[in-house]
Specification:
single chain; 405 residues; alpha/beta; 8-stranded mixed β-barrel; 6-stranded parallel sheet; 16 helices; 16 strands; disordered N terminus
């Protein structure tokens, strides 16, 4: 029997019909934790729910718990062990697809493909290292969701109780040198069936009684994550998002201050508050910001846009940062109105001695415009998407971006 790539692809497509209408699940088997973590990060970006195990002995439990659609056998697994993994998986009831990852095509690789087909499994085209995201997507195309994932009906109380919430981080960079200058924490939900879910699908209204618990979770997790980053990379200045209502509660503010690390490497926490909320409670927010600074906490005004005039002519302006709404940054290189609004906010920040951040930068032209306008910091997909804590820690250990010239 001769196996061709076409045979494998046709077999994979035929087996894909009738799959679940939720995010597909993948179990990654590799003896090296860093390889499993890399593969998990990559697959999660393609909307997979992932699980990991280091050897064949752990596999039956993972299959029973996760019921994966895809089994990924990593590059550190040799031919004998890969065949054993396939046997263990089949004996545990696995009937899905298998993808092999290896440095190159070998006799052993072809033997494993034969063995998997003989056991009735769908053997996807092997993936050779090094590989790109496009190559991975092509290999697992039959398993990818064909439509946007429906939003699960999960309230934040359930997510908090089950431990599904986590913080992802997007780094900020100096607009001139493009060196990292901290990161913003963004809440995400990792649902066991739907994968990573964006906040719009589960964040409650600010009047919801669960919003206080969610805010406390964000503070506590950010502090814990700061300690993790300190141990695995070094100190990173973090920003979190909180509603004005939380900061206008005296007990909540007292708790916030008590949670701050006393470690000498801790440079302080920045709390970002929506500009609309700041404008609605401006005097109270100014007083709160003045008090928080003494406890190593600063307030940044987030999503500043056309409402920037509400912030002018203040005797006291204790806010450390003005973040311009992405709606005015994206495309500002070619839009005179957006550029004008950005320039006025930058000048306002200069007048008050605050720094100014351009958010939502997705193109080189917008970055150049932000640089020319005098922004202090830049943030956006051009420099990196939000990522989970461990992935962020690994990325933070890489070299600075340098310049985009």
């Amino acid at each position: 029997m001769t196996i061709t790539t076409i045979d494998i692809q046709e077999h994979a497509v035929n087996a894909a019909f009738g799959r679940r209408k939720v995010s597909p699940r993948a179990c990654i088997v590799d003896g090296k934790p860093h390889l499993r973590a890399f593969l998990a990060d990559t697959l999660e970006e393609l909307r997979f729910v992932t699980g990991e195990c280091g050897n064949a002995e752990e596999l039956p439990t993972r299959i029973a718990d996760q019921q994966p659609d895809l089994l990924v056998i990593g590059s550190s697994v040799d031919g004998v062990e890969a065949a054993r993994i396939i046997d263990v998986a089949c004996n545990a009831g696995f009937r899905g697809s298998v993808m092999l990852i290896s440095a190159r095509e070998t006799i052993a690789q072809r033997a494993i493909l034969h063995h998997g087909l003989e056991r009735g499994l769908t053997m996807l085209p092997p993936l050779s290292t090094p590989f790109s995201a496009r190559m991975l997507r092509e290999c697992i195309a039959p398993l990818l969701p064909q439509q946007p994932a429906p939003q699960p009906e999960v309230d934040v109380a359930e997510a908090l109780k089950t431990g599904w919430l986590e913080l992802w981080y997007q780094r900020k960079l100096d607009a001139r040198s493009l060196t990292p200058c901290g990161a913003e924490a963004l809440v995400r939900m990792r649902h066991p069936s739907w994968g990573v879910v964006v906040p719009a699908a589960f964040l409650p209204d600010h009047n919801d009684p669960n919003f206080r618990a969610l805010s406390e979770f964000v503070v506590a997790r950010a502090v814990a994550d700061w300690r993790y980053l300190l141990d695995h990379h070094g100190p990173v200045d973090l920003s979190i998002n909180l509603p004005a209502k939380f900061l206008l509660d005296a007990q909540a503010v007292e708790d916030l201050c008590a949670w701050m690390p006393r470690h000498p490497a801790f440079g302080g926490l920045i709390v970002e508050v929506d500009a609309t909320e700041v404008a609605q409670h401006l005097d109270a927010m100014i007083e709160t910001a003045q008090n928080l600074r003494l406890h190593n906490v600063a307030i940044a005004v987030d999503k500043v846009g056309a409402d920037w005039p509400h912030l002018i002519s203040r005797d006291a302006f204790p806010f450390v940062e003005l973040k311009v709404d992405r709606a005015f940054v994206t495309g500002c290189a070619d839009d005179r109105l957006k550029r004008s609004v950005c320039k006025r906010i930058v000048d306002l920040a200069v007048d008050y001695g605050a720094r100014c951040t351009a958010t939502g930068i997705e193109s080189r032209s917008d970055y150049i415009a932000a640089h020319e306008l005098g922004f202090d910091l830049v943030q956006g997909y051009l420099f990196g998407k939000p990522m989970g804590l461990k992935k962020f820690a690994r990325a933070a250990a890489t070299k600075p971006l340098g310049t985009l010239d």
